[in-house]
Amino acid sequence: MADVDEARTPPPDPEVFKAAVEAAGEAILITSAELDEPGPRIEYANPAFTRMTGYAAHEVLGRSPRLLQGPRTDRAVLDRLRACLEAGEFAQGEALNYRKDGTTYVVEWLITPVRDADGRITRWVSAQRDITERRAAEDRQNLLVRELHHRVKNTLATVQAVLNASLRSSLGLAEFRQAFTGRIASLAKTHALITEDRVQAVSFEHLVSAELKAYDEPGRKRVTVDGPQVLLASELAVPVGMALHELATNAIRHGALADPDGRVEVTWLLADAPDGRVLRWTWNEHDGPPVELPTREGFGSQLLNRVLTLQVGAEVAIAFDPDGLRVTVDVPLPE
Predict the structure, then answer these.
(1) Which of 14, 27, 262, 320 is a Cys-bridge partner for 128, taking CB atoms 3.0 to 4.6 Å apart?
(2) Cα dihedral across residues 46, 48, 49, 54: positive or negative
């Protein structure tokens, strides 16, 4: 009995269908069936289409959806679309379209044929949505994955270099274990700071603070940090972070931070150089134990004199002042 009642239920009024289509969040186009220019001609466009494209309905009626195409629209995509429609099949895909104001957007479409009782196609119904933000997010994700692969490769090479250099510069197993563990921990902190940022960069101030904040005492300023906001990409942040770690470790063992009255100042600025801008930062120790010239080149000296110079093109000046160690580094910044 229920089946009989359902069979007798009249179809919804066409106005109900129209109201549903006009309330839909997706753009809906209905066009004529001919595919050759000047067709197909737009016969209906719902409000979502006008919001997406910037065209009012009366501006597109009677015109072809080709008005949305432009110089950067992929012809291969349009050719595949045409082949599907000529075969009388539904078509699904995406392309770059142009709004009325000339801005671009990525559109995803599903086009379905409407047939008469004899099976002839009389119209095409197209449901469309703007997927620009989704595509941009996917592109950013792909870029981050590529950057991650690149960084992991570089990190493994860095760990190997740190291991070999630590072995060469350490006087014994205990010293090697302590130095190597500290260097890897510093490397991990730098990578954590880079990963936390959306653009995969870290400020120079955060690198300095990550190494020195533990040695600043409440009510007694032992560490001074001052300079403008400067972001460093990963290829600069890693070697610079390692250099700061070596300077901090040296200050704790032999320099200003080994003395209760010792202080460390880290200041920086942006300066113009013949080949572009540089980050000029100075590590300055005060009131520590008497400064002695090193009797051998340790890992920290190698890092400052070789790695920063060769890897990032930095200029390094080291001065053993009576008041404490002073290191000035000019790091070239990319445009």
Answers:
(1) 27
(2) positive
% helix / strand / coil in the chain, to the nearest 5? 45, 25, 25
d(CA 188, CA 143): 21
Q: What six digits make up the tokens of 161? A: 């270099």
- Answer yes or no: pTM beyond 0.70: no
Domains of the chain: 2-130 (3.30.450.20), 165-332 (3.30.565.10)
CA–CA dist 275, 312 (Å, integer): 14
Residues 6+ apart with CB under 8 A from 280: 268, 269, 270, 271, 328, 329, 330, 331
173-196 and 204-212 are packed helices; what angle lies between their axes, rounded to 10 degrees?
140
First-to-last C-alpha distance (Å) of the chain: 78
| 247 token code pair | 């300077």
Q: Are strands 315-321 and 324-332 parallel, antiparallel or unpaired?
A: antiparallel
Helix (H) or strand (E) holding 168: helix 132-169
Strands 223-226 and 263-273: parallel
Supply angle C-alpha 76, 121, 87, rounded to 5: 35
| Angle separating helix axes 173-196 and 234-253, nearest 10 degrees | 140
CA angle, corner 71, sides to 125 and 81, nearest 5? 30
Running DSSP on this structure, what letter comes out for residue 306?
A: I
